[in-house]
Design a protein that fits this description.
- The chain has four helices and five strands, in the order H-E-E-E-E-H-H-E-H.
- By secondary structure, it is α+β, with helices and mostly antiparallel strands.
- The protein is globular, with a radius of gyration of 12 Å.
- The protein starts with a helix and ends with a helix.
- 22% of the residues are buried.
Length: 94
Amino acid sequence: MTLQNIASGIQAGLKDKNFDGSLKFDCGPDGVIVLADNQASTKDQSTDCTIRISTENLAKLLSGRLNPMTGVMMGKLKISGDMNVAMKLGQLLK
């Protein structure tokens, strides 16, 4: 699954929800997905919070197959910046 496909899926999920703040999924050499202004894009920009994660684990996280807290404890994702923004992500994953 490409980052553009994942971003499109996130964008569809934002349709009926509001995400306050900005968050970046940094997938290393694969690129980034940025959630800002209630939009999901693959254009890199500065954000309040960054989550470093592989593309494979991002797909698992968004599909519910990877619990965020378990992912942090296992080192599958690393969070930097405003933790409050990261915590809001959980509302989007429901």
